Structure prediction request, 528 residues.
Amino acid sequence: MEHDEQAVQLLQRSSAREHTKPCQTSLPRTHCQDCSLATLCLPNSSDFDDGGAAIEIVKRSRPLKRGEYLYRQGDQFNCVFAVCSGALKTFGLSDDGEELITGFHLPSELVGLSGMGSNIYPVSALALEETQVCRIPLKQLDEQPLELPYLRRRLMRCMSRELRDNQQMRLLLSKKNADERIAAFLIDLSARFRSRDLPANQFRLPMLRNEIGSYLGLAVETVSRVFTRFQQMRLIAAEGKEVHILAPLELSTLAGWHLDDSPI
Amino acid sequence: MEHDEQAVQLLQRSSAREHTKPCQTSLPRTHCQDCSLATLCLPNSSDFDDGGAAIEIVKRSRPLKRGEYLYRQGDQFNCVFAVCSGALKTFGLSDDGEELITGFHLPSELVGLSGMGSNIYPVSALALEETQVCRIPLKQLDEQPLELPYLRRRLMRCMSRELRDNQQMRLLLSKKNADERIAAFLIDLSARFRSRDLPANQFRLPMLRNEIGSYLGLAVETVSRVFTRFQQMRLIAAEGKEVHILAPLELSTLAGWHLDDSPI
DNA sequence: CGCGCTCTTGAAACTCTTCAACCTCGGTGG
DNA sequence: CCACCGAGGTTGAAGAGTTTCAAGAGCGCG
Prediction:
């Protein structure tokens, strides 16, 4: 597992007209405009009053292998990342060295926002599978005020969104039992797949059972038991990481989302 | 309990030279410069490159009485608030109508950030005691990009801070037992009092036991039992809401903060 | 092929919640 | 002035849910 600076080695991005020779890693030159996630990663493209400036500073990194770090807890904060493909987890370490997962990040989602206000990343980010990200270099927003109103707003909105998600997770962790937590977790994942126009009721979990447990504040064994119980109840069909949601409505009811389901 | 719009009735702020006649509510005219919390609420005043513009838009509201709402869950997002005096709690409602507390807000701290990216406040904010706030009208940061770099940065930093605090709370809720939660809660409060140059080891809790429980994901009875146990262990002395921390170090150890204690 | 990791399952142990009772205190009204 | 009342707080005992410990099955990979 390499460290951030090596791991995220940036490509030289070719400008629109300029034709550069292929670099060693032979990665595709990319533009946000070409990206299949553009509408998700940069929503409201009508809002593009930066004249393309925002896009110019976003660069795609070389792919991360499974188990590779995007950044580590304590690293100097450089930039925020948008996931292009694959999946990441962010986590910190507890006193006894146990890994405590704070989030999973799928394509079209941003990673690293929590480091924004300070000099360092407060958690580590690691690839759960072959993963590609786009790097949004911000240095310190403090020292170098962004002159890109569009991107700034987008970041603001994402942070606010993450704040609300976090609060909802806190409610989940304080008040919900194991069944409700797993149900909510599956429904949440389902919605995130749907937002990418992927099958919402049939997907592959990018994380292990024990990672689900760490995220939801449950022991692995409990996660496993709940999965088994859900299958007996015909709510889901699961085979390893492959999951079919058989009864989405019942599952949603079980999850019992209440505060604000609507992401606005 | 009144609604936001009535509750937060703004004063006309007098300009520096202009002498206006007292208004009916006879509240003191205030400036950020005069505020005892200025260095906390607006840290790094050397950084004041807005030429005072940021300060101009901040207005102090009339005091809220205990039990009065600052805003309600679902209200349209108008502004962020800085607490001047008193204390607030923010909370949502669960399916069964139970109140779920997401945070306590003491003087010098901001309230309402989680509504920033959307049109509405995702939680309610209510005064735990006589409370005064300063209103920072932002409308929608989206539509009306702030031209106040200093204030914008301050908000950014606060959101990021809140993100990290939230993640730490999630760790607390997933992994810590009742003793550890209460210890962490007291240590956190202690630090927040200290940052205002108030006694860090002797303070009055602005919230009820059941509110502590709601915040920490514990039953009231559990909170009460832990308080009793801590007193038997001579970690604290508590009489109602009045708390003395007798053994700050032991309490910190018990709390076992690990991820990032340093607020940067 | 076997080793290790993941996942599953069972039984015991433990923590926290729930239910119920009681206490204290401050406010209110007789 | 005192009794009453309700809210907040404390304490005990029973019960539920989850963790922990232990063992075994499945599976991929060197």
User: Anything to note?
Assistant: The mean pLDDT of chain B is 78. Residues 176-264 of chain B form a domain with the Arc Repressor Mutant, subunit A fold (CATH 1.10.10.10). The CA atoms of residues 65 and 130 of chain B lie 5 Å apart.
